[in-house]
Amino acid sequence: MPVYVLQDEVYDFPPVNQSTKDGLLAIGGDLSPERLLVAYSSGIFPWFSEGEPILWWSLDPRMVLKPSDLKVTKSLWKTIESNKYSCSFDADFEGVIRACATVPRSDDQAEEEEDQDEPSPWISEDMIAAYCDLHDMGIAHSVEVYQDNELVGGLYGVSIGKVFCAESMFHTKTDASKVALYNLCQFLIRNGIELIDAQQETAHMRRMGAAPIPRKEFMKMLKPLVKNESLVGNWGDGSAEFTMLL
Prior knowledge:
This protein is of the alpha+beta class. The chain has helices at 33-41, 74-82, 93-102, 125-136, 176-190, 203-207, 215-226, and strands at 4-6, 24-28, 45-46, 55-57, 62-65, 86-89, 140-147, 150-160, 163-171, 195-199, 211-213, 230-232, 241-243.
């Protein structure tokens, strides 16, 4: 099946069922806020390495997590209750995304730091700039985890309607990214955001309670959820308000 070539300043994507077997749907275009909003609300996300053209994906199956289904192990709960980490929202978005790009990690966000591998090469300077623009618009959000005022873990993603599209996470201390995910899920539950789109299946997210579902089922869930009001603004300072984006 041929891959669709996007046109400049035209933000429509082909139907996701036209993607290749491995999930590649389209190539080209740009990372403008308008295109990214259309992409995420349509079950599509960008993923490409530095120097490559922009590649757009819609995977089948799709990894999802309902915030209320998060699995908190006894050891993680012990870490949470120890209060050795503090957590914030939208306090250092650029710091989080740059850490996700540079901190060595394994494909499944392994339990122990010594099991980590290479950084995420797909988070290029263009990607960082694009998501920082979305953050400035109050649409992309970060969770920061600190120990003794040092950023030791976090995650970031895009929030549209009642869906949080998770992009990446990192940790330099044990359980720090899990603490970020726990605090994110608690926040989403309080604010009526019903689904985390974790995109691709990993052992780490499976352990945390996420599950792969057929893309067709995912799209049926996604379409009504993104048509709700979005919590736009800074999630950490109380200024965010529910606003229609689509």
